[in-house]
Amino acid sequence: GSYAESTDSHLLIIDIFDPKNSSEVITAKEGKGISALAILPDAIGQASIVYASDLNGSMWKFDLRSSLSDQWKLDYKLYHAKTTQGKDQPITAAPTLGVNSERGGAITVYFATGKYIDDGDRRLSKDNPYHSIYAVTDPGFTVTTGLESKTISPPDSTGLKRDISNTTIDWSDDSVYGWRLDFGVDEERVI
Hints:
Elements: E1 10-13, E2 24-27, E3 36-41, E4 47-53, E5 58-63, E6 73-80, E7 96-100, E8 106-112, E9 132-137, E10 147-152, E11 164-165, E12 178-182
């Protein structure tokens, strides 16, 4: 959780039918406080892949496809959310999964950054950077580049309307894995 003293993120999986014999803890080896997750089921509805976020801005992929719980494992870090200045962006809200038909049905993980846990989270500062929304298509490895930038306008005079630019992504470019949109107004975040 968010106040854990460990410097590793852990995913705890409990088999509700056999909790003593089929439960596992999978360690991500870095990060802090896995906070939210999305489960990709297999054809019969059992969890096969889990995407989970942490307070250091990492989006992790865990592989649960084996019928043997001791074979479940951390697959890799899909993405590390950071500001353009390199500050970690914590993720506390659950990601959403989608299918990218432009990439042969690859899974796209949609997530946003932000937290509202500590006193310092109320306002933006050098320790609490601006937050963003991401869409990262999973290519089977860690994505470090290849996200196109979108922008959002400040609210109009009514305070109700905002425009998003660069809404078209060129999926024919194999070096593009998704997009990011940085919030532009003080204190915007997703929690």
